[in-house]
Amino acid sequence: MTVHYVLHDRSILLPHVTRFIVQPLERRIPRTVSANTLTLSSLTCAACGFAIALLTTPSRLSLFVVALLFTGYTLLDNLDGPHARALGTSSPLGEFLDHWLDSLNGLFVFVGSVYALGVVDWRTLTIVALMVASVSLTFWEQRVTGRMYMGRVGTLEGMVMVLALLFVTALLGPAAIRSVTWHGYDGVDLFLVLAVLAGGATIIGPIWRTGRRFGTALWILGVLASLVAWGIRGHPPQLAIFVLVALTGPLTGGRMLMGRVVKDESIKPPGILGYAMGVALVGALHLTKPELDVANAWGGVALLSVRVLLDFRRGVRLLGQYVQPNEVLRWLLP
Hints:
Blueprint: E1 6-9, H1 14-26, H2 35-55, H3 60-87, H4 92-117, H5 122-145, E2 147-150, H6 155-172, H7 176-179, E3 181-182, E4 185-186, H8 187-209, H9 215-233, H10 238-261, H11 272-284, H12 290-318
Parallel strand pairs: 1-2
Antiparallel strand pairs: 3-4
């Protein structure tokens, strides 16, 4: 059983990646390996890359290892769907895992890349927020209209750019991205401009195509904008604010996806995000002491992380009939 929706995918790279990389690799995957195993393996690659990026000082070696792990994530993320179709095991559970984990992997891949490169500032925070908004509004549009639009420059193109940047910086050294300057602007500024152009189109497009039903979309953007403002003007720890922005993905777009897959319109972004937005605005306006910003930020990370984990368990349990006997997901079932 599959969940049907209309997909408009205009990706520049996807047809070529599918033909020359994905299809040859898929034929070599043992039939005993489930598609969901590939999906969870992609999550493992992303999480390991994120951990290495956080726990090591940026160097050629750490950048190369992180780039390899994120490459593994990208390949596995594009292999699970074709493998499911080859095995005839496509299911709502597979769609939920594949796309919902994409919203979570934004935390691991985008924030991990920022820390691996050692470019943690307001510009990269804005880039991460734009990427989260793009993914979230894509899933929001899919739920509202039953159509998913992927532009000419979408997730795959963004990942290829990130991977190219990581590998090039691993070759030239961590300082390379800042040493390339043009009229006073460095490489981070260039990526900020590209993110604004690509992310802006992906954000405006869903709102434009859905007509007047954009209240939820504006609320999602409001939460992200408030968190970014807090990170720029307030005193939250850098890592905490990056994680809070990234966790907004599975709690907005990820929840929209879950509600559509399990056919439950009551599943919407949780009220705790409204609380997070309020705390962020108060912090951005300097209405609290710096030490309270720190406590609020890490407390928010803990609360949102628990909410994300509970959502994952809930999604798997609601779709538990599709869990195969050989899958590790069985331990989440009642």
